[in-house]
Amino acid sequence: MxxxxxxxxxxxxxxxxxxxxxxxxxxxxxxxxxxxxCARSREALEALAREAGERAEVAILDVTDDxxxxxxLAEILARGPVDVLVNNAGVYEQQLFLAQDPAWQRRxxxxxxxxxxxxxxxxxxxxxxxxxGTIVNVSSLIGAIPCPATASYCASKAALNAWTHxxxxxxxxxxxxxxxxxxxxxxxxxxxxxxYDGVYALPVEYVAAELVRAIDRAPRSTAASPVxxxxxxxxxxxxxxxxxxxxxxxxxxxxxxxxxxxLPRT
Length: 266
Prior knowledge:
Blueprint: E1 10-14, H1 19-30, E2 34-39, H2 42-52, E3 56-60, H3 66-78, E4 84-87, H4 102-130, E5 133-138, H5 141-144, H6 151-171, E6 176-182, H7 204-217, E7 221-223, H8 226-237, H9 239-248, H10 251-261
Parallel strand pairs: 1-2, 1-4, 2-3, 4-5, 5-6, 6-7
Helix pairs in contact: 1-7, 3-4, 4-6, 8-9
């Protein structure tokens, strides 16, 4: 179902200093939305705010820190309501499960899953009080179709997906919409350190435009291109086939990581 664009919404974007978050904040600002730019780096956010224009606000926020989130959101909400929350902050690493640092595995869950919960917990009461709002949780295609060499990341995004859908049952009847947005491989600076065979990296500006579209239309869930939306539908019918297709994109990487970590191969 399509929803009309509300005039001059105030949109809070976490992880706004780089990648998809940065591109999305700029896309929103350029069409007249008010954007609240949230991340840990003041320097990067202030540079982005200058590019986004006078309708941009900067808020220093660490999604893994309860006090940081509570303090920042108290200041943000004191200046006015948040109409849209985009939980975009995330971290990612390609590594074999047995070779990956357990501390990093916990961080992936802390940022990608619990970070979204922290920020939502701070924003949601004000949305419920107003009887409207939209929460878009930026997940990943491999949160729905897991991929080798990213097991903990996939788990964090799968948890985010399930939580978003469960939360919908608690808040939809009170006017708050929840959306799962699933980018696929995206050509960000961080993606340069990743390896997928035969997978096209979507331009970050394209993914940002698709995210803005998801904010406007508020579907239950959506991928970041028509091709991957079709792939997800096929995965629902043929899960084994889809899993093999995704796994095939990292076969060479897995073998290389096994050799580097001196882990046994089957």
